[in-house]
TrEMBL record:
HAMAP family named in the record: MetAP_1
Molecular function as annotated in GO: initiator methionyl aminopeptidase activity; metal ion binding; metalloaminopeptidase activity
Domain Peptidase M24, chain residue ranges per copy: 28-255
Gene responsible for this protein: map
The protein, known as: Methionine aminopeptidase
SUBUNIT field: Monomer.
Amino acid sequence: MVTYIDATSAPLKNTGVIRLYDADAFAGMRKACQLTARCLDELYPLVKPGVATDVIDRFVFEFGMDHGALPATLNYRGYTKSSCTSINHVVCHGIPNDKPLREGDVVNIDVTYILDGWHGDSSRMYPVGEIKRAAERLLEVTHECLMRGIAAVRPGARTGAIGEAIQAHAEAERCSVVRDFCGHGVGRLFHDAPNILHYGRANEGPEMKEGMIFTIEPMINLGRPHVKVLSDGWTAVTRDRSLSAQYEHTVGVTADGCEIFTLSPGGLDRPGLAA
């Protein structure tokens, strides 16, 4: 049975109960999420052939420090980096390293900052130089999946409506939806209830209520949906080595729809793609 609780009276741990946040919490989330969005904007000119993902990760760390924020991934369950950088067939949780990006790569950069106790979580795809049309199309489809999922958010609907909208578009475009990872509640906690599946049916899942805050972050593959996690315990890749893409926003449910907290202040929600 799904239960809800006023976030101000909930314990600071994931108990499976869905928190409902107030206007002050929304204000805190706006600040944290906009800092994350600004960082992702600033990364755009840095993502180019020859640049190592470790350089990107250092920028994420230093940008956070300069603005009084901590990267949430740093030392999270043993993870040692300030961001995730997932290249080509890496679905998510790619670990930054000293290997340079190459012309034609596509890379997802996932950043979460903790600012004044609030978690701002977002990711975008970045093309590295000139990319093939198939890769560009995957990025376009994936971003559209995200936005269709967000359009399904409103009080009274169920979270399955988000998944149904994403799955319908992805499969109509002959792509597949990764089932192994999902969106999640966020706020004072990095990962909280509810899980937000990127596939399903509109009559499934918890009812969305005003005050809920969660991420929507579909992972869409050009090939089959199956993934495996490498021996490092983090890096998830497509089993058929097909390209994968992901975009992520943090949203809050409002009285008549939702607010997207992580929109790019510079209009770079789809870096390198035509508007």
